[in-house]
Design goal:
The protein contains seven helices and nine strands. It is α/β, with parallel strands linked by helices. The strands form three sheets. It has a five-stranded parallel beta sheet, sandwiched between helices. Strands 3-4 form a two-stranded antiparallel sheet. A two-stranded antiparallel sheet has the order 8-9. Its EC number is 2.1.1.228.
Length: about 230
């Protein structure tokens, strides 16, 4: 998979993309991540990419020309047509199902905005989807783009050391993950549940399923609304 990121601050991505699972994914060529600076496509010597909104109001709005020119230059770098996504608060809320959907694409193009947002003609002209990572305000689209990259890359084949890890994680089946334990068996009078020491894999699987459902009912009951009855 190739992921293009169009941003005013490509340096923000350098450290997050250079460590842990994302680094391994890049080194194994499971994913290629290409950063492009929208400001490099500004038309003037001041590298201006924003202007005052028509109709008045606070703040500045990202201009069409630098974004369109950056998009067209980056798009031409590969024959694969990108799925174009703008990181905006009014977009579809990002979740595990959408991460799975995006992980099946050959190429993604994430556009990270700043200021008061994008000129609306950018969305219209690029026929871009909009994705939000939550109902809160951030300074720009860079952090949301990093979240999408991380969630998608870990789903690519061979990226995780054990592919079953992605299956067992929270939200993978619509429920929160069951409790996890490791050595020692007792720590500060807190014991690992005996069932996990029994070696009975059938009973362990049932315990994990029950605990997953119990946690979801307690902490995220909203997740149960869309689940089939056999999972509740």
């Amino acid at each position: 998979m190739r992921i293009d990121v169009l941003t005013l601050f490509p340096e923000m991505f350098e450290s997050p993309l250079a460590h842990s699972i994302i680094r391994r994914a890049r080194e194994s060529n499971a994913v290629e991540i290409v950063l492009s600076n929208i400001r490099d496509f500004a038309a003037d010597n001041y590298r201006k990419v924003d202007d005052k909104p028509y109709g008045g109001g606070p703040g500045m709005v990202m201009m069409c020309q630098p974004v369109f020119d950056c998009y067209e230059s980056v798009k031409a770098q590969s024959t694969d047509k990108p799925r174009v996504i703008m990181m905006t608060p009014q977009g579809r809320k990002f979740d595990q199902q959408l991460a799975k959907e995006l992980s099946r694409e050959k190429r993604l193009m994430l556009i990270a905005g700043r200021y008061e947002g994008f000129d609306e003609r950018i969305r219209e002209g690029l026929d871009a989807e909009q994705i939000s990572i939550g109902d809160y305000v951030l300074t720009g689209g860079e952090l949301p783009a990093m979240v999408v990259i991380d969630a998608v890359a870990r789903l690519l084949e061979g990226v995780l050391g054990d592919d079953a890890s992605a299956v067992d994680e929270s939200f993978s089946d619509g429920l929160l993950e069951y409790p996890q334990y490791t050595r020692p068996e007792v720590y500060r009078d807190m014991r690992v549940p005996e069932i996990l020491l029994s070696g009975d894999h059938g009973k362990i699987a049932q315990w994990r399923k029950d605990k997953s459902l119990e946690r979801t009912k307690k902490w995220r009951p909203d997740l149960l609304d869309g689940l089939p009855d056999n999972k509740k």
